[in-house]
Amino acid sequence: MDDGGDMIGELDLDRFTDDLATLVGYQTVVCRNDGEFARARDWIRQYLAGTDAEFVDFDVDGLTSTIIRPASSAKPTLIGDAHLEVVPGAEPMFALRRDGTRLYGRGAADMKTALLMLLRVMRDLLTSDDHYDLWLVITEDEEVGSQRGARCVVEHLVDRDLLPPVAFVPDGGHDFSYVEREKGIAVIRAVACGDGGHASRPWLAANPIDTMAAFARACSQVFPDPRDERDWRPTFVPTAITAGGASNQIPTECRAVFDLRYTENFTPTDIRARVNDIADTHGVAVQFSKLDAAARYPSDAPIARDYLDLLEDVSGRRPPILHSAGASNGRFYAAHGSHVLMTNARAGGAHSRLEWVDESSLPAYYELVHRTVRLVANRVRSGAPITGATS
Predict the structure, then answer these.
(1) Which pLDDT score, from 0 to 100, does residue 29 have?
(2) 241 — phi, psi (to 5°)?
(3) Which end of the chain is more exposed for a tag (fewer CB within 10 A), N or C?
């Protein structure tokens, strides 16, 4: 495996940490703060100023996604995909702070560190003799399903025959692991109707909250929660419920949102049919605002075998192969035949108040990203096989 590892310089860790503090400082909270997103996008352009990077923006219903490519590149050998938005957090979380080797802040793990690393590697390559046809995709809605972001960008690339055989989506695989599977995702919006009335006389009313609760219980019986990450079963979780006004009034309507993550044992058609059957039985109207299939990134594909060797070389141990309960933008690339590689630095606490990345792991991660770009480019340019099992 020749990936040009000896050609990589050293990461200026102090500079990288300063840049990460700047990026974390932009309060790019999902579906909020348009001005902060604009400032962050301007900063990214300045970060690549002086190179021949070209920026192609996509505005879909007021949300911006960006493709960054070398001006002289006709087609990518590899796409690096990252999202700029973060989940909400308290004000202090948008100031990067240090505790030992850990750097805490919103987006440190998910996923501004990985985004910045992709930008840093692209800047290196744009000022070198070979940019290896690395393109970047930066989106702003991964945390709410990517329906206006990655989905649209990938469709744009497919329509123009620009989708590469490999995508690097470092939205998981913390501590130099390899993500082989991700669950599918369904977001279900449900409405239950009833006959309202006075709360002191429930026998004169039909409470839609009871109807919604019965629907939720029935779904939970069909999709019982797993015990832990290794228990590879679907999860069905209520994430929002709205009903009523006055405390002494039985409402006429109850609305709820449910998050369903499912394994490759189910197709989207299966999920829709099962949920619709339960809804019909309980008199609840449902709508799927999102329904995407589970994804698999086989660890026995030719590119994966070389990548696993690379991970071992960089991290000093054979990498764990993970099944992720989450869902990332990787599913859109995989759905069109790209092999997805997913690995992050040593990090944790995503979406929590103690989100962190281990600064000491960043030099190795820098080496990994550089060598991944070259590994993929060398395979693509040589015509070597990328996908398909080797045995």
Answers:
(1) 97
(2) -145, 135
(3) C
Strands (E), the chain: 53-60, 63-70, 78-83, 97-99, 102-104, 134-139, 166-168, 178-182, 184-193, 197-198, 235-243, 249-250, 253-262, 284-292, 295-296, 321-324, 339-341, 347-348, 356-358
Torsion angle of C-alpha atoms 245, 249, 254, 259, degrees rounded to 10: 70
Q: Report pLDDT digits (tens) over 94-129.
A: 999 999 999 999 999 999 999 999 999 999 999 999
- Digit-coded pLDDT (tens) for 254-268: 999 999 999 999 999
What single-letter amino acid sits at 355?
E
Q: What integer is the mean pLDDT of 201-222?
A: 96
Other CB atoms closer than 10 Å to residue 177's CB: what's the count?
18
For residue 246, which amino acid is it?
A
Q: Is the dihedral of CA 264, 268, 274, 275 positive or negative?
A: positive
Report yes or no: 12 and 120 within 8 Å, Cβ to Cβ: no
DSSP H/E element including 226: none
